[in-house]
Amino acid sequence: MNIRAIAALLLSLTLAAFGTGCRCDCTDAAKVVGTWVPESAELGGAAFPLSSFDGAELHLTADGYEFAGDKGTYRVLSDAWPMPMDIMGKEGPNAGRTIPAICTLAGDKLIVCYQLGPGERPTAFVSPAGTQVFLVRYKRAQ
Q1: How would CATH label the architecture of 23-140?
Q2: pTM above 0.90, yes or no
C-alpha cells in the first residue's frame, strides 16, 4: 500500500469519527462526566502549547466543570451536529461570562471548540487564523 493510499485511509477514518456526519452525543451525562486531559489545542489558527495548561485537567460533572481554578456550569443546547453548548463561568477568570462553544464526543475523545472573543458560536471544529476561537482535543483520563 503506498503512502497516498494510507493517508487517504487515515483521513477517511478520521472523518468517520469526527467528520460532519458524526452524531456523537455530548448530551448523555454518563458519557461526558469524568476527567479529561488536553491532547492538543489551537488558538487563532496556531498551535497552543499544552505546557500553558500547567498540567490542568478538565473535570466534568453532569452540569458543571472545573479547569485550572475556573469553575461553572455548562449546558448542551440541542442534539444538532455540531452540538452547541454554553459554558457559564461562576468562579475564576471566566466568572460572569457565557462562552459559546460546540462539542463532539467519540468514545474516549472529547473535542470542544470555544469562542473566546466577541464573534459568533463556532460552526466547525477549526480555529481560523486571526480569531479567538480555541479548539481543544481531550482524551479521557485513565
Answers
A1: Beta Barrel (2.40)
A2: no
